[in-house]
Structures are given as structure tokens and as C-alpha cells.
Fold this sequence. Notes:
Shape: elongated
Low-confidence stretches: none
Largest sheet: 2 strands, antiparallel
Structural class: alpha+beta
Number of helices: 4
Amino acid sequence: MPFKAPRICTCGKVVPAGIKCECQKARKRAADKIYDAKRPNARQRGYDKDWERAAKLFLTRRENRACVICGEEATVVDHRIAFKGDDALRMDVRNWQPMCRPCNSCKNVRREGGFGRKPKDAV
């Protein structure tokens, strides 16, 4: 059975293939901490009690219980078009779709940018 050889990390340690070195994990944690400190919290981004109540009600409807992408149980309400501060668009039920968290995260990374990617226009 073929296997990949271990590699040498930039810190000089020999690391098995497919495993991150502790120094890489520490750098990632530090970068995440900086990003989180700059990012507004959910309330500041527009997700208030009214939104939580409406989203919870939306997901209880039978037609909204499955993710529109994979069919798994929907756990979040996604905005088809990002509302970017537009309150009318934020609360417009026609702009909502049920999604599971993994599909929602992938969609947001693709459309709005993330992990060093440039944002794409909504399709």
C-alpha cells in the first residue's frame, strides 16, 4: 500500500504526511483570533431578536425543513442575496432559503469570499 513520506516543517520538525505541525496550528489560532477581534458580532451585523424569532419560525414550516442544496436537515436560514445592511432585504422571506450549516458556509465562502478568495457576484 503506497503512503506519503513525512515532510519537514518550516520550524524544522519532521511531520507525518497530512498532519499539521504544532507551530502551524498555533499560527492559525493566532490569525483566527485577530480576525475575530476585527469582525462585528452577530447583533452588529443585523441578526437581532426579531431575526432569530422569524428564522426559527421559518425553519419550523414543513417545506423549509430540508437544506436546498443537500437535502439534510436545515439548521440555518440563508439569505439568497446578502442584505449588507438593507433591513428590508434582511427580513424579506422571499430572500430566505433553508440550509444546513456546512452548505451555508461553503456558499458564503464561494460568493462572499473567504480563505483568501475574492468575492464573486451572486449567481
